[in-house]
Amino acid sequence: MPGTAAVDADATSGIPSRANRRFPLRMSLLLAGAWLGFLLFLTLTSANPITLNRTQLRGADLIVIARMIDPAAGRCELIESLYGPEIETSFAVRRMDVSGVQVNGVYLLPLSIDAPPRYDITPTPDGGRLIYPAVPAALSQFREIMGR
């Protein structure tokens, strides 16, 4: 049979068949795809963890959880007072020019008393002004830092 002789000749000559030559390429593409999928998984599950600034929190006169009513004017509505003196349910915060603040967003605010009912974001040691989303991870870190 002529067809059989050609197959046997390729098998005996040591030249891999066309299907066997594509196997390493396919395996490489499969491994690269799996690696990229794993990196995407890591990015989605562990990117940008919340880290509270201990010095900022310890230097604050009061720490509250508040809903942002008007970021441009700094108007906030008190949800819960976590540390410091009691404050009004509606108050204003100066320097709320923090990027990413959203209307109706709920935030953990470390505040310094300016002139009630007006407050200021407590600065970090380098002069930055940080606020934090009031999510369970942030509240857990707050309790750990403040010993509550």
How would you describe what is shown here?
The protein is of the alpha+beta class and 148 residues long. The chain folds into two domains: 2-46; 54-146, OB fold (Dihydrolipoamide Acetyltransferase, E2P) (Beta Barrel). It contains four helices and six strands; from the N terminus they run αααββββββα. The chain has helices at residues 2-13, 18-46, 54-59, 136-146; strands spanning 62-70, 75-83, 90-94, 106-115, 118-121, 132-133. The chain has a five-stranded mixed beta barrel. β2 (75-83) and β3 (90-94) form a beta hairpin.
Secondary structure layout plus pairing:
Blueprint: H1 2-13, H2 18-46, H3 54-59, E1 62-70, E2 75-83, E3 90-94, E4 106-115, E5 118-121, E6 132-133, H4 136-146
Parallel strand pairs: 3-5
Antiparallel strand pairs: 1-2, 1-4, 2-3, 4-5, 4-6
Summarize the structure.
The chain is an alpha+beta fold. 39% of the residues lie in helices and 26% in strands.
Mean pLDDT: 85
Shape: elongated
Question: How many domains?
Answer: 2
Distance between the termini: 87 Å
CATH architecture classification name of the largest domain: Beta Barrel
Give the assembly state of these chains: single chain
Side by side, the strands of the main sheet go 1-2-3-5-4
Give me the secondary-structure category: alpha+beta
Sequence stretches where pLDDT stays below 50 over 5 or more residues: 5-9
Helix tally?
4
